[in-house]
Amino acid sequence: METGFILINKPSGMTSHDVVDYLRKVTGIRKIGHAGTLDPMAEGLLILGIGKKSTKKLSQFLRMDKEYVGKIKLGEVSNTYDKEGKIEKFPVKKNPSKKEVERVLEKFKGEILQTPPPFSAKKVKGKKLYQLARRGISLKVPPKKVKIQEIEILEYRFPYLKIRVKCSSGTYIRSLAHDIGKTLECGGYLVELKRIKVGDFSLKKAHSLSEITKENWQKFLL
After folding, report:
1. Contact 175/115 with Cβ under 8 angstroms?
2. Which residue among 14, 67, 186, 189 sits deepest, i.e. has the most Cβ atoms within 10 Å of its Cβ?
């Protein structure tokens, strides 16, 4: 049986498991997994292991640093920390200047404590947070230490802020967007997210699902 890894450019609107299901149908192989979930809203690099031998090695990718490009909308907040949630206006006294945004981003460089979004797949007492949140149950989740190696402004025109972030595994960009908005005292949530790197693996080398067929999937294996 063919085994190896395939780099996929996941489109927005699909779950990471949808990508796994697609490749199961194309390859006829049941044992397929991915290295690090992307939210349905998010797009970008998803590493898939094909076959038992490769899925056993997926944990090595989970520990690698990640790089993202994210777009934040300021002046509003979301209960999910992204555009999929309940959006509310935030009372903004004045629009932050680019210099103020740069100063705030500097505060997030290095090791920081971060709390996962209330609507996330993180498990607490055996239950996923989003399952509890949908039932109106809110649990206090202890923050965890993550590391932001690099963070920079790519574009800024209020209310939209586009950033590039290189971070440790386990960092929630939704939480980062929320915390940036909170620190700027104007609120904020994530409206777009693209994962562009996992370790040394780049989105530039990834393939769209439409490229991969029953006849040619083996040629995409790493």
Report:
1. yes
2. 189
179 and 108 in contact (C-beta within 8 Å)?
Answer: yes
Give the active site residues: 39
Segment 139-178, tens digit of pLDDT:
566 788 999 999 999 999 999 999 999 999 989 999 999 9
Token output for 181: 């908005």
- Contact between 7 and 222 under an 8 Å Cβ cutoff? The reply is yes
Number of helices followed by number of strands (H, E) in the chain = 6, 13
Domain 66-198: give its CATH superfamily: Pseudouridine synthase (3.30.2350.10)
Percent of the chain with pLDDT over 90: 73
Q: Which CATH superfamily is domain 4-63+200-220 in?
A: Pseudouridine synthase (3.30.2350.10)
Domain boundaries, the chain: 4-63+200-220, 66-198
